[in-house]
């Protein structure tokens, strides 16, 4: 079976926008429902953030169902085909030039199979990159290349952690994701039968942030969605995302994303 090679910066679908630095190519590609893409591979490795919709991907590793907010790593040269049977999709692609990549330590980029991940921390880094992508300026190249290296290193770290985290700690993370209201440490202790001290220490060791910092990431991620897709004002978003008030929302949001909520809304409009 013949396979097409997509060279640097090339993608199937409708290309909405493209930004290129010396080492990274950012592309926003759209795919109508019922689209099918032939077997192909890419010249460069890239991360695909499923911004909207969903799709199916077939490769030597098997079949993946990629849903909204999934982050999928594709190594260079790995053949795959795609189908969009259930919904249209929009993909934000972060492509890494092989020549530029060779200047850096190879450790963070040793994945040899297509791999999928859901990660709040990684998604927030990608949101920062999307803001630079939408409001490109003289300093954007430096920001984009730095954020790309952070994204790749974090992707590898979180994939490596996936098999090492005990089930009870995964449960803690799932509870934090699922609960709409604040959760007390005593409740987590009762559910997991682990001491509060052990939960706090194990969570920080496994995920690199404290439980409190992780909760702020989740709230910020939820706020990003509301800023992009609704017209709610900042006070309403602060309440819906369980921030103490609008001022607290603004401080935490800027600390995590590097932007104020209004700057983020404008950059991703």
UniProtKB/TrEMBL annotation:
Gene3D superfamilies assigned: Homeodomain-like, Jelly Rolls
Keyword Kinase: no
Annotated ranges, domain HTH araC/xylS-type: 169-267
Name this polypeptide is given: Transcriptional regulator, AraC family
Alphabetized GO MF terms: DNA-binding transcription factor activity; sequence-specific DNA binding
Source organism superkingdom: Bacteria
Keyword vocabulary terms for this entry: DNA-binding, Transcription, Transcription regulation
Pfam families for the chain: HTH_18
């Amino acid at each position: 079976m013949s396979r097409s090679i997509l060279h640097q910066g090339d993608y199937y679908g409708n290309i909405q926008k493209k930004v290129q630095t010396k080492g990274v190519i950012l592309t926003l590609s759209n795919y109508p429902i019922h689209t099918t893409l032939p077997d192909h591979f890419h010249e460069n490795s890239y991360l695909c953030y499923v911004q909207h919709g969903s799709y199916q991907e077939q490769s030597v590793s098997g079949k993946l169902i990629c849903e909204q907010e999934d982050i999928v790593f594709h190594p260079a040269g790995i053949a795959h085909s795609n189908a969009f049977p259930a919904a249209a999709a929009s993909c934000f692609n972060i492509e890494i030039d092989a020549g530029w990549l060779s200047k850096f330590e190879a450790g963070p980029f040793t994945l040899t199979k297509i791999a999928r991940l859901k990660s709040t921390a990684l998604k927030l880094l990608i949101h920062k990159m999307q803001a630079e992508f939408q409001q490109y300026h003289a300093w954007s190249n430096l920001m984009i290349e730095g954020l790309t290296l952070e994204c790749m290193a974090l992707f590898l770290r979180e994939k490596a952690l996936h098999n090492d985290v005990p089930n009870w700690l995964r449960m803690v993370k799932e509870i934090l994701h699922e609960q709409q209201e604040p959760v007390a440490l005593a409740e987590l202790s009762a559910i997991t039968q682990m001491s509060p001290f052990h939960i706090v220490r194990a969570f920080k060791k496994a995920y690199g942030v404290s439980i409190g910092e992780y909760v702020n990431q989740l709230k910020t991620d939820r706020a990003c969605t509301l800023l992009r897709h609704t017209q709610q004002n900042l006070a309403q978003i602060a309440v819906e995302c369980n921030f103490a008030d609008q001022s607290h929302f603004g401080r935490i949001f800027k600390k995590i994303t590097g932007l104020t909520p209004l700057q983020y809304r404008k950059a991703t409009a």
